[in-house]
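Weekly puzzle thread! Below is a chain. First person to post its structure in token form gets bragging rights.
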Amino acid sequence: MIDLKGKSAVVTGGSRGIGRACALRLAQAGASVAILDRTDWKTPETESCSGQIRRSGGTAVSYELDVSDSAQVDAVFERIAADRGIDILVNNAGVLHAGSATETTDEVWRNQFAINVDGTFFCTRAALRAMLDEGSGGKIINVASISGLRANPGFAAYCASKAAIVNFTRQVGIDYGAQGINVNGVAPGFVETEMTAIYPPEIRAALEGQTPNGKWASPDHIADAVLFLASSLSDHICGEIVAVDGGWLVGTPVVVPAGTSGTVE
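Winning reply:
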């Protein structure tokens, strides 16, 4: 049983989907949780993620935050650090835009990077400052994607932004490991969220058929990996990306044309 009692966690984009599952899982393990996004703070108590945590006997607060605004990020993180400290950060806030390079407008490209990449950078930098000031180490977990580790046809801006998060995670991981700050990431595959609702049923069925374990993940599957990386069990893991994809990256079927046989030398 992972015990995070006494730890203070921050989750961006924590009102729904993967972020909500992460916030709930960290709270169940005993952490106090601060949810940062554009909606949880104004959602009714009976529906918000922070409200659900409090109703379950946990400790949670929520703050309005646009992760693409560095000044706003710094102000919110400074407030949290002063109030409760920051031991764990989950950079989950993100957006997805479909489209090939020629279909991607300047506005879409910039929005994709402003939230996914700039937001991850601004929040990581702010958390690092707090963790270094406290001097007791910390855990930072970035939510990347398998689309940051391999190409995904028709998602030029999204793949590029998630690839940036992957290498940023590796770089920050080696830069701050000696200070006791473990920076790692998770790369979800196909997960049942609002983002993947863009896929029609027949496409989903085909994608599940190409997944070695035959199904998509639930947000809880991602949250389980995040909980592990947020705990002391991951103390010797640094700059790594953990794929949570049902075996997609390592086992996507290779379609061999009919009639192909023999050995090519």
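Puzzle host: Confirmed. Bonus trivia for everyone else. The radius of gyration is 19 Å.
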